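Section 3.1: Structural characterization of target chains.
Under the original work plan, the team committed to producing a structural model for every single-chain target entering the pipeline before any wet-lab resources were allocated. The record below documents one such target. The sequence was received from the expression subgroup and is listed exactly as submitted; it comprises 281 residues.
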Amino acid sequence: MIEYEKLLNFPIPEVRQRVTPRDAVFYALSVGLGQDPMDKRQLDFVDAHRKLRVMPSMAVVLAHPGFWLRNPETGVDDVKVVHGEQTITLHRPLPVEGELIGRTRVTGLVDKGEGKGALMYSEKEIRDASGTLLAVTGSTTFLRGDGGFGGPPGPVKPVNPIPETPPDITVDLPTRTEQALYYRLNGDDNPLHSDPDVAAKAGFPRPILHGLCTLGVVTHALLRELGNYETESMKSLSLRFSSPVYPGETIRTEIWRGGAFRARVVERDVVVVNNGAVVFA
């Protein structure tokens, strides 16, 4: 059972990470870049012999504290944890190499009621060794098994509206059947994405793709179509995860020129990312 004050002030360990070009390349490969061998712009993310660019979405895995909700001291039913929403705010371009410091904290808890689960809001600041702020990432985690602990019923973050008009741009990007097994090496080793038995206990027929891997695929589509792969032009991104992706499915990102977006899996015609908003300089 969640104890409100204890989880709100839970001591999530500070993380220090020495980032190398290999890390940047591996992350880009793990979210699907490099699948078109004729696209030289993608090579700038995956060929360490070139002047490397870092995917803006890599902020979500840099100096990441891991699956800390697995700690029984949190009081959370970790098998029923689902990533609900994600934001990224970029203050400076992410470095190809160097030491990074990540500080994560819980910023809010919402009790949706007995049998209805709870929402946990958290935030991670990423700074370089000098203390300069590079990026802030924010997460909403749906704690499906933890409602009714006596916490506040709000406030709940508002969602970004999606236009009623057809999208201006549509991008299809495939995922691979083993992609979750690669992606988890970025530091998110939740067994929901690798172990069929854990997936079954959580109510899924097979392991699902990390929501943040889906975010990486969608970020690729946005960066390609709205930013021409100029990573420094992306300033912020936010989205809601509305349904899981199974590794091997094709993610279709639907984009509006004003920065709104959503995504669906082509094979099942199910919206998997909704209420997205991205800002480019």
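The two ends are 44 Å apart (CA to CA).
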